[in-house]
Each structure stands twice: as structure tokens, then as C-alpha cells.
Amino acid sequence: xxxxxxxxxxxxxxxxxxLKGVSFEIDGPELIGLIGPNGAGKTTLTNILDGAIKxxxxxxxxxxxxxxxxxxxxVARAGLGRTFQVTRxxxxxxxxxxxxxxxxxxxxxxxxEEIAQKALEVLEFLTIDHLRNEYAQxxxxxxxxxxxxGRLLMLDPEIVILDEPFAxxxxxxxxxxxxxxxxxxxxxxxxxxISHQMDSIFTLCRRLLVLNYGDLIADGIPDDVKRxxxxxxxxxxxxxxxxxxxxxxxxxx
Length: 253
Hints:
CATH class: Alpha Beta
Number of domains: 1
Strand order of the largest sheet: 6-7-8-3-9-10
Structural class: alpha/beta
CATH topology: Rossmann fold
CATH superfamily: P-loop containing nucleotide triphosphate hydrolases
Helix content: 40-55%
Largest sheet: 6 strands, mixed
Order of helices and strands: EEEHEEHEHHHEHEHEEHH
Oligomer: single chain
Distance between the termini: 57 Å
CATH architecture: 3-Layer(aba) Sandwich
Number of strands: 10
Shape: globular
């Protein structure tokens, strides 16, 4: 059973304390929403989990293997994969070639014919099989997101982090992403979903983690989290500050 144990993560950038002793654990194929106001520390936490940056203190274990000091490619091989809020693809490679990269990098002994067959099945599932020979740079923003999801399917990680998968996506493609999440989770994979679209979070997720200014202020089922005074204060406080900031900006202009 997949286990991710995050213990006491702290991260500072100069004098800014971005994560403050964050701890949580994932057991099995959980579908978890990671939410919080802008600046809460979600991206920093994600970047530590995937190896892009190192914590100042604390540990991350995936299936009893410590991964917080590993480079991203070793974290991926250990079984944790992610997408990015701003999509990243090999723009001068075709869609099909983009799917080959993670499968070949893993070097699990599959032939090129087997990899090609799986890639075509993934593209058909994501409804972009007609784009297989298009260069990635020619895809729309929503199609780019589907391509990233396809590369994760080729990587076949045990834990998937999806960073704002619905942002800027056409409603038809959102339905495809919903099916993707249900398929991956149904296959026994754990998912951490980061999104500002609360409807999607509360529809899909059975557990929520809430960050605010680097603190994990809530961890529980959605109904409980919605009623948590600390969560209400974090979101209402953020809205009030943004509103005051906008008013101040208009007054100065």
C-alpha cells in the first residue's frame, strides 16, 4: 500500500518562512485536495515533494524510502509524479514523442512497440489521439494540460500531484480531466489535487489539507473543513486584504 509520510517540513527563503513544520500522511489510494489562499505555501510544498527544492528541515518518505534529498528524476522513479500549473512539454517534439520520453526514461524493459501501443491508448483516452503527430507547441492550453496528464500515465506513478489542472480549460476538456482523475484513483493511485476551483475540490476529494501562511491549519473531510473557523478566517481574511489592496491601488491611481 502506498504511503507518503511528510514530517515537520520547514522552508525559508531568506527571512521569509514559507513552510512551518508541515506534517501529514497519505495511506493508500486517497484523493486529497490541497487548498489555501495565494501565498499559502502550496507550490513550495509541491516543489519539495517532487525534489525541485530541498527543505531546511523535515523529511519526506515514500514507501519508507526517504525522498526529500533526491533529485526530481529519482523522485519520479521512486513513484511520485506531478503536473505543473504552467504546462511543461517538449515543444519541438510531437505529442506521441512526448509520451515516449517518460516511458523510455524509466527503462522498465518494455519494447518500443509496447510503449507505442500504450501511448496510443493514452492519447485515445484523453481524446487527443488525432493530434499524435502535431508538435506540442501547436497545442492549445487545454490540450497541453491533457498532454501532461498523458505523460503521467506513461510514468505510472503511485502518487500523482495535479497542480491546477482545470485552470483555463474548456468545459469539454474538464470532463476528460474528471475521468482521468477517477481512472487514476480507481487504479489504486493516490492523488493530491491543487485547485482554486472549489466546486471541483469538493466534488472529487474526500479529504482536504489547508495551508495558510505556511501552516497546515486543517486536515479532514470536506464538510468539517468547510466549517472550520480557522479555514473560514483564512479565506475571508485573504479576500478582505485583496479587496483593501485593490481599493488602495485605485485611490493611488
